[in-house]
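Same chain as my last thread, 66 residues:
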Amino acid sequence: MTQSTHDRAAELHNLAAHAHATAATAHGKADHLTAHELSKQARELSENAYKHSAQLAGEAEKTARA
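reply #2:
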């Protein structure tokens, strides 16, 4: 696997972490509507990051078996 594939997975995880932090900030400012929307976005980003990482892990496992 190329490093760029791993970089993409890291980027997805970082985007999700940033969205979670932004949602937490909005909650702290009592902007709950915005925080709710940001939390939904953070969840979607987290799920995408997880799926991408799981795909990488599956590919790595197949390569190791070969």
